[in-house]
Amino acid sequence: MAVKKEGKKGGLTSIAEVVGSHFPDLKKKLLLAGMEDKPIDFLEKVVYSTCLISVGLLILVYLFLAESLAFNLDNDLLLFAFMVLAPLVFVPLIIFSYLMLYPDAMRMRRQRELDYEIVFAGRHIVIALKSGMPLFDTFVGASTGYGAVSSEFAKIVDRVVLGVPITQAIREVVYYNPSKYFTRMMMQIANALGSGADVGDSLEGVLDQISKEQMIALKEYSQKLTPIVMFYMVFGIIVPSLGIVLATVIFSAISGGTYGFSSGILVITLFIIGLVQFLFLGFVESSRPKYLI
Question: Which of 50, 98, 215, 221 fits a 20 to 30 Å CA distance from 116?
Fold first, then answer.
C-alpha cells in the first residue's frame, strides 16, 4: 500500500479539505458508523466517486437530450444554455449528496445490529453477576457469541486490559455508540458502579424496560404494515398499470390515433415505476424492527 508523504497533497486532498470545512460533524458520524476512515480520506473517496459517476450520468443525459439540444441551438439559445448547464450543476450535486448519506446509513445499520441481541447479551451479564462472577469476567464472556454487541464488549475489555478503569472504558465506548439501548444499559452499569449499588439488580430492571419497548415497537410496526401495503398496491401496481392503459385509450380516442406514448416515454415510465416499487420495498425493509427477544 502506498503511503502518503507528509506535506504532499493531491488535487483531491485539497478539494476534500475545502469540502470538509462544511461538515464539522463528519468525524463523529464516521465513528458512530464504525468506519475507520478519517474525514479527509472519506471525502476524497466521495469526491472521486462523484466525478466518475457524474461523468457517466452526464453522458447518458446529453445523449438523451441530443435532439432537444440540437433543436434549441438553432431556435432558443437561452434554453439551450440551461439544458447544457443544469445537468453540470445538479447531477454532481445530487450524486455527492447521496454519497454523503453513506455514514448515516452505516450508523443505522450498526444500530440495528446492536439492538438485535442487546437483551440476550444483557441477560447473560445479569445471570453471570448473580452467580457471583466479577463484572470484568462477565464482559469477557459477553465479548463472544452476540454479534455486534460482543464487539462493543470486546472494546471495553481491551481498554481495561490496557489499564483504563472499567467505568471510564464503558463511557469511552458508549460515547461513539449509536444504539440507545446499549448506551442505556452500559450507563446503568457505570452509574451502579459509581454509586455502589447492585449492578445485577439495576441491569435487570433496565433490560425489562428495553424488552418492553422492543415489544411495543414490533406491535407498532405490525399496525403500520397494513396501510403501507395498501399504498404500495395502489401507487406501485394499480395506478401505473391501469393508468397507462387508461391514458393510452383516452389519447387515442381524442386524437383519433394520432397521439400516443412513444417508446422513450414508456421507458421513462418503466423506470419511474421500478423506482417507486424499490422505494416502497426499501421503506418497508428499513422500518421493520429486528429484535431477538
Answer: 98
